[in-house]
Automatic annotation (TrEMBL), chain B:
Primary location: other
Upper classification of the organism: Eukaryota, Metazoa, Chordata, Craniata, Vertebrata
Record bears the keyword Cell cycle: no
GO MF, one example: protein kinase binding
Location in the cell: Preautophagosomal structure
Primary gene name: ATG101
Xref: Pfam families: ATG101
Family: Belongs to the ATG101 family.
Name listed for the protein in its UniProt record: Autophagy-related protein 101
Keywords: Autophagy
């Protein structure tokens, strides 16, 4: 669909479309991170903010988008799609929405590329910012955490809407006519989520019942892997540089801004999202899940109950070296699945009754209780569970959650071990007590002599207090 | 040139008025604001960068995006606050409307003052309902959130029709098209006005109540 476009305009248009596609992906994925996004306005043009909008670039997302595009641009019959799906802790997944950047054959030959097209693309990005907050997946993504996570996948080619279930709805974000075709941005989203409020996802029991109805085997196996929408890069820890430098150096060549480009950094903790957690022992993570459901009277264990994504952040602060970006992403993905491994109920669940809530309480209880004698059911029950919990804790202790292996190795684990098997108080031991008593008596005259020498100091001290 | 006019209606609880109006106004202004213009020689200019931020509503299950400009946000909150006060003190049935008008200034010769020519007007009609129970309020919270989602989609649809927009002005005329008084962003010249409308009877309140009761009955 070539027109009378001169080479400079054609070059500009291709660049605009390419960066528009990359920014579109950033806006969509960032809107599903689960956090509020905030960028600053700048009265001075920097030349690196495409479409005069402050949209930060997450390097992994840019990398994935470029990988999907593979040097091509969205064109007629070649759409760029961003698929957003939900994955539960049980490993079930469901497509929520497909965002499509398409091109059709309707050309606007009169339109000015470097001015009108650019400004309209900017307007379209603003619309995308607004629309990404109003589809049902947004509220779900804000509540993602331990029960489910939101994943994204970028692919190029034919749009695949089969995974959205019946009766999905479509919202058109907007269109921009160009001399080579009309760019259309739209979103198709699952609507049967409307019957599943976010509250239902917060209640653990109904999840399986609801989700089962929506799982359909994908007719087309994904050619590209899914990635979580809740990660953050740490440039220092990954030690990986993404091959995107050459593109980011391209200035937003418009008739407006002229200053040199600068690399946009990934947002910090405030605006960004945490790394995936280091590999916790399965028992540990199962314990975390378990902790979330135990009753409030379960003392210390519930104090560690993860309640929100903040705890995910705590867990994920234990960083470790990464081999490569793909390993990072795939490892993150796998770890998320592994993190929700199911263990047999009888191994995992704590005792239901509050007074036997924790193995710690159980240990105290068993210390004082008469074992095996009249021993009520609670005591026996506690003992058994204590033993089982101890077995569960063995892997937990080796590599407990929330611990930073590389900074304070086994600090938390050491604490638990010591606390579980505390040494006997020395003063309670008769032999030791007797020994120290004799020593004390012998040393008493010496101590008295020393104190008598320092009597004046003591008196002066007492006077200062009065 | 005809002025484009769009009307949106919202039915909200009293405490939701402010957030509902801000959501609509900010969404419109997001699309009608650019970065600050910096004119250079030879008639070229560069444009600053517009940042955005998400705003969670406290009384509505809704999040909207606004331009990152505290000055603009303060200006809108001020006028919305005045509207809310007027609505409360009117003693009527809680009906009012707020208009956001974008205009251009046309210089006139002395002794005539400059003419303000509107090119786009957004009117938001507000119906305030009173709810009795917490359950009704919770349902209202969700329903209003869903309705606002629809309004945002409507706004975006209008914006992307790419209908009339004032031409980019020269440096001498920029103040006739844009509000250059803000430090960080540059919206098109706009003014906001409101009025408390006469009571139209209790039909709206009754309809809203009926809607909520029907939902509960399900």
């Amino acid at each position: 669909m070539e027109t009378d476009l001169n080479s400079q305009d054609r070059k500009d248009l291709d660049k605009f479309i390419k960066f528009f596609a990359l920014k579109t992906v950033q806006v969509i994925v960032q809107a599903r991170l689960g956090e509020k996004i905030c960028t600053r306005s700048s009265s001075s043009p920097t030349g690196s903010d495409w479409f005069n909008l402050a949209i930060k670039d997450i390097p992994e997302v840019t990398h994935e988008a470029k990988k999907a595009l593979a040097g091509q641009l969205p064109a007629v019959g070649r759409s760029m799609c961003v698929e957003i799906s939900l994955k539960t802790s049980e490993g079930d997944s469901m497509e929520l929405e497909i965002w499509c950047l398409e091109m059709n054959e309707k050309c606007d030959k009169e339109i000015k590329v470097s001015y009108t097209v650019y400004n309209r693309l900017s307007l379209l990005l603003k619309s995308l910012l607004a629309i990404t907050r109003v589809t049902p997946a947004y509220r779900l993504s804000r509540k993602q955490g331990h029960e489910y996570v939101i994943l994204y996948r970028i692919y190029f080619g034919e749009v695949q809407l089969n995974g959205l279930g019946e009766g999905f709805q479509t919202v058109r974000v907007g269109t921009v006519g160009t001399p080579v075709g009309t760019i259309t941005l739209s979103c198709a989203y699952r609507i049967n989520l409307a019957f599943m409020s976010t509250r239902q996802f917060e209640r653990t029991p109904p999840i399986m019942g609801i989700i089962i109805d929506h799982f359909v085997d994908r007719p087309y196996p994904s050619s590209s892997p899914m990635h979580p929408c809740n990660y953050r890069t740490t440039g220092e820890d990954t030690g990986v540089t993404y091959p995107s430098v050459e593109d980011s150096q391209e200035v937003c060549t418009t008739s407006f801004s002229t200053s040199p480009p600068s690399q946009l950094m990934v947002p910090g903790k405030e605006g960004g999202v945490p790394l995936a957690p280091s590999q916790p022992a399965h028992g540990a993570q199962a314990d975390q899940e378990r902790l979330a459901t135990c009753s409030p009277s379960d003392g210390a264990r519930c104090a560690a109950t993860p309640s929100s994504s903040e705890d995910t952040e705590t867990v994920s602060n234990s960083s470790e070296g990464r081999a490569s970006p793909h390993d990072v992403l795939e490892t993150i993905f796998v770890r998320k699945v592994g993190a929700f491994v199911n263990k047999p109920i009888n191994q995992v669940n704590p005792p239901d009754s509050p007074e036997t809530g924790s193995p710690l309480q159980g240990s105290l209880h068993s210390e004082g209780s008469s074992r095996g004698s009249s021993g009520n059911t609670h005591d026996d029950f506690v003992m058994i569970d204590f033993v089982e919990a101890q077995l569960d804790f063995s892997c937990f202790l080796k590599k407990p959650a929330f611990s930073k292996d590389d900074i304070l190795p086994m600090d938390l684990g050491t604490f638990y071990r010591e606390f579980q098997n505390p040494p006997q108080l020395s003063s309670l031991s008769i032999d030791i007590g007797a020994q120290s008593m004799a020593e004390d008596l012998d040393s008493l005259p010496e101590k008295l002599a020393v104190h008598e020498k320092n009597v004046r100091e003591f008196d002066a001290f007492v006077e200062t207090l009065q | 040139m005809n002025c484009r006019s769009e009307v949106l209606e919202v039915s909200v609880e009293g405490r939701q008025v402010e957030e509902a109006l801000l959501a609509v106004l900010h969404t419109v202004l997001l699309h009608r604001s650019t970065g600050k213009f910096h004119y250079k020689k030879e008639g070229t200019y560069s444009i600053g960068t517009v940042g955005t931020q998400d705003v969670d509503c406290d009384f509505i299950d809704f999040t909207y995006v606004r331009v990152s400009s505290d000055e603009l946000d303060r200006a809108l909150r001020k006028v919305v606050g005045e509207f809310q006060d007027a609505l409360r003190s009117s003693g009527g049935d809680g009906l009012g409307q707020m208009s956001l008008e974008f205009y251009q200034k046309k210089k006139s010769r002395w002794p005539f003052s400059d003419e303000c020519i509107p090119w786009e007007v957004w009117t938001v009609k507000v119906h305030v309902v009173a709810l009795a129970t917490e359950q009704e309020r919770q349902i209202c919270r969700e329903k209003v959130g869903e309705k606002l989602c629809e309004k945002i989609i409507n706004i975006v649809e209008v914006m992307n029709r790419h209908e009339y927009l004032p031409k980019m002005p020269t440096q001498s005329e920029v103040d006739n098209v844009f509000d250059t008084g803000l430090r960080d962003v540059q919206p098109y010249l706009y003014k906001i006005s409101f009025q408390i409308t006469d009571a139209l009877g209790t039909s709206v309140t009754t309809t809203m109540r009926r809607l909520i009761k029907d939902t509960l009955a399900l």
